[in-house]
Specification:
This protein has helices at 2-45, 51-72, 76-101. With 107 residues, the chain is mostly helical. Helix 1 runs antiparallel to helix 2 (51-72) and helix 2 runs antiparallel to helix 3 (76-101).
Length: 107
């Protein structure tokens, strides 16, 4: 009976862990959308107030990626997927930064 309860508890812990990882991934996706929305709004209107969503998204992404990396460090498959995902996120962030930088100053 103890063995079954122990297995059940361990399985429950992994389920909770998986939900935490999925939640962090959803947070990263949401923050990426904020970055994109802020970039798009700024490019279309040249209204600097849109850069607030952009900056907030950048800060949240950094924090969420750090937390996500800590969560997946104990799972080699998840760690590998995380390492594969990070360059895609960075490429997208670099693109949005370059687009913002191309808007002429003073507008």
């Amino acid at each position: 009976a103890y063995f079954n309860i122990d297995r059940l508890v361990k399985a429950g812990n992994w389920v909770n862990h998986t939900h935490e990882v999925l939640e962090k991934l959803e947070n990263v996706l949401s923050s990426m959308k904020d970055v994109e929305r802020g970039t798009r709004g700024y490019l279309v209107s040249q209204d600097r107030s849109y850069l607030e969503a952009y900056q907030n998204g950048l800060e949240l992404i950094k924090s969420d990626l750090t937390n996500l990396e800590l969560l997946v460090h104990d799972n080699s498959i998840q760690s590998q997927r995380f390492r594969e995902l990070k360059p895609y996120i960075q490429t997208k962030l670099d693109l949005t930064r370059k687009l913002i930088e191309e808007v002429p100053l003073g507008n």
